[in-house]
Each structure stands twice: as C-alpha cells, then as structure tokens.
C-alpha cells in the first residue's frame, strides 16, 4: 500500500536550516505531484509547497517563498524540503502529501524553531 515516511525534523535555532525527507513506496512516485503541508500548534493545516512529477516546476506559499526549496529524486523515490532562514513561526509538524485523485499523507515530522 501507499506509504510516506518523513524524517529530518528536529530543534533548530532561528536563522538555521533543516532538510526534510519523505521516502515514498507503494505507488509510482515519479508520476505524481507531491506537496508539503504543515500544522503549527493549535492551528489548522497550511499548504507549504508543491512539486510536479518531474521536479521541474515548484510553487510555494508566500510565507516560505525564498526560504524553502522543494526537490525530488525519482530514482530514490524521495521528496525533500530544504528549509533555510528558519523562523519561530515555522514551528510545526510537516507532512508530505501525495497528489492525485487519492491523496495520501505521511505521519509527519516535528520541526521546532526556538532559541
């Protein structure tokens, strides 16, 4: 079955960087657009980014534009989110989400930005 496993979260100081990974299995990863979505404590879900199946097109929420970069390695069935210049308001659980007619979510990885 479809499985998405995020990793790479942790505690980082403001201004720092983290790279999240999402290992995908159970579907043809290279044919699906993929998203990153986050949920801050006590808040609703916020879409962060999307990347097309080939990795040539990306789009970002205004809140992360210029600081976050989504990429993918279709040979490794892995999605990435490089996060730079992190701010306390980036603190959230980050999920990778498979696009298409039957979305699927990973379990999420916690990112905490604090001094």
- Distance from first to last alpha carbon: 40 Å
State the helix count. 0
Which structural class do the helices and strands define?
Answer: mainly beta
Order of helices and strands: EEEEEEEEEEE
Identify the overall geometry: globular
Mean pLDDT across all amino acids = 97
Report the strand count.
11
What is Rg?
A: 13 Å
Q: State the share of residues found in helices, binned by percent.
A: under 10%
Low-pLDDT runs: none
Tell me the strand percentage band: over 45%
Described by strand count, sense and barrel closure, the largest sheet is:
7 strands, mixed
Descriptors for this entry?
mainly beta; 115 residues; globular; 11 strands; seven-stranded mixed β-sheet
Structural notes for this entry:
The mean pLDDT is 97. Helices cover 0% and strands 50% of the residues. The strands form 2 sheets. Strands 2, 4, 5, 6, 9, 10 and 11 form a 7-stranded mixed sheet that branches. The protein has a 4-stranded antiparallel sheet with strand order 1-3-8-7, with no helix packed on it. With 115 residues, it is mainly β. The radius of gyration is 13 Å and the shape is globular.
Q: Topology of this structure?
A:
Layout: E1 3-7, E2 10-12, E3 18-25, E4 34-39, E5 45-51, E6 58-60, E7 68-73, E8 78-83, E9 92-98, E10 104-105, E11 109-113
Short précis:
The protein is mostly beta strands. It has strands at 3-7, 10-12, 18-25, 34-39, 45-51, 58-60, 68-73, 78-83, 92-98, 104-105, 109-113.
